[in-house]
Amino acid sequence: MESVAAAANGRTSASLLERFPVGLRALGVAGLVGIPASVFGVMAGAAGSPTSYVPSRSGGWPTWLAGPLHPLGLGLGPSSFQTLTLVMCASYAIVLLAARMLSGRAIALSIGAAYALLLLGPPLISQDVFGYLSFARLGALHGLDPYTHVPAEAPTDAAFPFIGWPFQHSPYGPLFTLGSYALAPLGLAGGLWALKAVAVAASLGAIALTASAARRMGRSARVAAVFVGLNPVLLELAAGGAHNDTLVLLALAAGLALAASTTGRGGRTGLNTGMDVAGEPLRAARAADEARDLRAAAAMFVVGIGVKASAGLVLPFVVLAPSRWRERGGVAASAIGALALLALVAVVGFGAHAFGFVGALGEQQQLIATHSLPAETARWVGLAGLPTWWRDLFVAGFLVVLALTLWRTAREADWRTMAGWATLALLLSTAWLLPWYAIWALPLAALADSRRLRIATLLFCAYAILIHLPLADPLLSPARQIPHHRLAPRR
After folding, report:
1. pLDDT at 375 over 50
2. Is residue 274 part of a domain?
């Protein structure tokens, strides 16, 4: 049924291209210009003067925070932010429709220009980047373990005025936490711009890897690059805020690229199961190659766990991807070995508190984001606050989806598609939903067999953008304000 729907969609798209090729191409080119132009407007406006869209202004407005676009003297208020964001979203939709008619060079130029501009402005929407720096400075400069100490214990540190939540422990994985220690000698300004550069580089790397994987899978690399790279959530919220979720995105894209030679259906070779005996060695060799690629992908997903534990959601799907239990055991062994190495790094770096980030994640999950689906629906039905039983309903729903998607993966469903649905279910069920989390689903949806998954992912991304715009005032409750989740230094 899915293949029939995809084929029908392909015929419809082809028909549109045949009937309106010139107009659609012209609109696509306009969209490729509109995206970096709107990014420039947002970043230059945010740099021009203190604005609520740069919450780290709480620590002051030094020129190193405003960035090189500051001398332009532009401003950014709710109306201009909404207009520019809507232009960005409309341009994205147009380019996505016309991607097959646009040259790869034009798409690459638009992506490059947009991310270069993102690099020049202050961190948008969130103070998380200063949370990263604060935890790094706790460990590297003050000798305090960020898994057992909080930023408030170093109130004289230069990062302290810029952070949003000074009483939380670090929920980040040991690879990211130890790696961030290297930023402390750069100073606060140097550390900020280094993290901005890392976020932009990670985003570009993830885009390139997703496009490469699509090409190897016989799909449109241009569509995949546009789907991920020009998505407003990645541009404005994730890379624009210098979030380490971009590193998770890179790890996911790298794992998917490593497994690109495996077919969608349970990782099977796709060869004729009725081939004669002479073909059996070829089929066995192909299965062994695919299992090897899946083992490498599993190890890469573990690297993502070293940044944020949420990357681990994909791991059981890649383990179940091979068609035979023998190959599944090999992938599981690879994952376990990589996890053991990660644990060793954590123990060497943090000793007895190596897994303190797990406890911090538990603390975090007790928090409530204003526009998470559990919080919004609780208000819609007239509940007072967010009762525990209501949250538990959403958690139960996620567990059901997780079990169903794992079962389907074990029965030869496309593991990328199933992992994508499980990721969306997690995002919809958590009460601590931060909008840049939506990028976790992007590479999975871009490479999955399911058109429905891509549509659902785009709808979720639209919601993540909508909650920041004034036009959402009549739709969301309570009345829109800069949500408290924008001030969070971590997820």
Report:
1. yes
2. no
